[in-house]
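Dear colleague,

Thank you for sharing your sequence with our group. We've completed the structure prediction you requested, and as agreed, I am returning the results in plain text so they can be pasted directly into your records. Please verify that the sequence below matches your submission; if there's any discrepancy, let me know and we will rerun it promptly.
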Amino acid sequence: MTGDVKKVVLAYSGGLDTSVILKWLKESYGCEVVAFTADIGQGEELEPARRKAEALGAAQVFVEDLREEFVRDFVFPMFRANALYEGVYLLGTAIARPLIAKRQIEIAQRLGADAVAHGATGKGNDQVRFELAYYALDPDIRVIAPWREWQLGSRKKLLEFAAQHQIPIARDARGEAPYSVDANLLHVSSEGKALEDPWAAPPEHVYTRTVAPEAAPDEPAYVEIAFEAGDPVAVDGERLSPAALLARLNELGGAHGVGRLDLVENRFIGMKSRGVYETPGGTVLLAAHRAVESLTLERGAQHLKDELMPRYAELIYNGLWFSPEREMIQAAIDASQHSVTGTARLKLYKGTASVVGRKSPVSLYRQDYVTFEEDEVYDPRDAEGFIKLTALRLRLLKMRRG
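Please find the predicted structure tokens below.
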């Protein structure tokens, strides 16, 4: 079975797992390995990953800057829906996987590769996310998932394999790493040893993108975010590209301790896991988007969006970005966003992002209708018939019950 694979494209990070996988694929399959590393804003210098892959014998290495595509075509469409998994998680890891898989398949098709491979473990969601995307984009592609095939079932065995094959590893990786970290322009997540007890508070050093709220500045900061047709386009009057805008909000939110989340979540594969997430820019963006929607969306559309959101978020979490049902919901969400144009003003202070102002040139808010002062556009007597008709079924029910 292994001999029929001549070329495989590996999603390569440069870390211990994928470095071992690169070498293992060459040994076990006797094939060429093409390493692909996506820059989606993880905040690391990626040239060392390129050099490491070359030193390990990769036939070709692709390191590609996908930051703008990531935010424009994946993060922003998701934020139009105000997507939150289980009410709180902004889906920072899940939304990155379809883009990485998409580019991986494109490279594989261009190079005539027989297979693609990833470094996701057999207990996590990412194996599902990667592979559902692979098959949606190339139904006949062969997928190699080393964690489900090899006998290197522990970190200790990985380290032994690395030592035997002269694979360079970080000095501090020779012990059991306390955290499994995933980072991109939207978030940083941490899971693993020190966090596996859901009763234990996360140590402060686990946080890398946000200051502790109690250590944040004593003076609040104010930020204005402008939206056009549902997408943010400017911060404090300065128009920015999608990636630059999210990076700016990460800096502002992180400096004030905004965006920390300690969560026990339900994985798609059936178990619960505890993770610590930092999503400063996304937290600010979500509050701002909802603020502009509150002025510009008609009630029925706004409430229907809120009903669709949990299903939409679950589809992304479960790796079904390329499914027809996600695309159907996305079409409905996008149709609602044509009028979502305006500006939200937020106050960032000690871990909170509070909306303190909102305005829109197409606002549905009418002060002449809602004022408590005397007006000439609304007759309160109209409410009497509305209330009686609404109450009719309740009155009849009570009559029957006696």
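Summary note from our side: The CA atoms of residues 141 and 224 lie 46 Å apart.

Kind regards,
the structure core
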